[in-house]
Design a protein that fits this description.
By secondary structure, the protein is α/β, with parallel strands linked by helices. It has one domain: Rossmann fold, CATH 3.40.50. The chain has ten helices and 15 strands. Strands 2, 3, 6, 7, 8, 9, 10 and 13 form an eight-stranded mixed sheet that branches. The protein has a three-stranded antiparallel sheet with strand order 1-5-4. Strands 11-12 form a two-stranded antiparallel sheet. β9 and β10 form a beta hairpin. α5 packs parallel to α8 and α8 crosses α9. The longest helix has 18 residues. It starts with 8 loop residues before the first helix and ends in a 13-residue tail after the last helix.
């Protein structure tokens, strides 16, 4: 795949295929019985547009297309993961409670990892992650309240640095962050830079209100959120209300890319609910979609470096490239 510039037909085709294949991170198998769930799903996250029709979705045969991504390894630094991801998880380490068996006492990590990879059967539907067969390495660095600290994060990233070759790590996804200028986090800054220089793509959420750390770092691919609106003329995309956009940090524009981040279908750990999924919104889930999509790029281009995959993502989904499309609404620049 060659690098894409300005506004060639290839970028439009790839972008269209991306939203068909990866829209909201999960794909529906409509060969099963259709019932009232479909109305919920369509009203919640699927636009009424021919491009995103169920016919086109089923044509993609996602589960077969991404079979090879078993060779791609994604580290998920979050609250853990639940049974829904067991078939994809190749390693689990708990930096919070030192437990050995896979678990998630918050649910955020389950949602994030489920959007990236795996499959979920929920009554009449089967959902696939963006990269269904990718391997997940789950590092629990957040407690039951979704909280963490710099020392725990540093332990997790240090583990990545020491085990990069052993597990052939391609991607690290941290779908969280906190408000800081980063000056007190120099050891973590250095560790992330070390990991990136070791040919690993580090992806984080950009933050739902202000740009968070470590998404502020130049070496990190920070992901903002898109939403869509149904208009009489079709679907119109714009920056989600709770997403950062066009933030200038050290003369660099953040977030680096934008992915859908409103009403994303994700697995839940909650019991006594009618479905095994919920509709999630926020840059956390945009980052998860980006990680899954990056895994597919790695799979399609085995010789690509992490930097080349980053370039591909930015050539497709940076603000400037998205702005070229007539159905993308522009926003004014914000400075923090």
């Amino acid at each position: 795949m060659k690098y894409l510039t300005s506004k060639p037909k290839s970028i439009i085709l790839i972008l269209t295929m991306f939203f068909i294949l990866l829209f909201v991170g999960w794909h529906l198998n409509f060969n099963n019985k259709v019932n009232s769930n479909l109305e919920l799903l369509q009203s919640g996250f699927m636009p009424n547009d021919a491009i995103f029709s169920t016919t086109e979705l089923t044509k993609m045969k996602t589960n077969n297309k991404n079979e090879k991504t078993k060779s791609v390894n994604i580290v998920v630094i979050d609250t853990g993961a639940s049974k829904f991801q067991e078939s994809n998880v190749t390693f689990f380490k708990d930096f919070v409670n030192n437990r050995e068996n896979l678990y998630d006492d918050n649910g955020h990590g389950t949602a994030v990892s489920g959007i990236m990879a795996g499959e979920l059967i929920d009554k009449d539907y089967k959902y696939y992650g963006v990269s269904p067969h990718a391997n997940l390495i789950i590092l629990k660095a957040m407690d039951e309240n979704g909280k963490t600290d710099i020392y725990t994060l540093l332990k997790a990233f240090d583990w990545v640095s020491k085990n990069r070759d052993k597990f052939n790590i391609n991607i690290v996804c941290l779908s969280s962050g906190y408000l800081t200028d980063g000056k007190l986090e120099d050891p973590l800054n250095s560790k992330i830079t070390e990991i990136v220089n070791d040919n690993v793509l580090v992806i984080t959420s950009a933050g739902n209100h202000k740009l968070t750390y470590p998404g502020r770092l130049t070496d990190v691919l920070a992901v903002g959120s898109l939403k869509f609106e149904k208009k009489s003329s079709g679907i119109r995309y714009s920056i989600a209300d709770n997403s950062n956009y066009k933030v200038v940090i050290n003369e660099s524009l953040k977030p680096d890319i934008y992915m859908l981040g409103v009403n994303i279908v994700a697995p839940t750990t909650r019991i006594n609910v009618s479905h095994n999924f919920f509709l999630a919104s926020g840059t956390s889930f945009s980052a998860a979609i980006a990680a899954g999509f990056a895994a597919n790029i790695f799979d399609s281009n085995p010789t690509y470096s992490a930097l080349e995959v980053r370039h591909e993502l930015m050539n497709l989904f940076s603000y400037e490239n998205l702005f070229e499309f007539d159905n993308f609404k522009s926003h004014k620049k914000k400075n923090y």
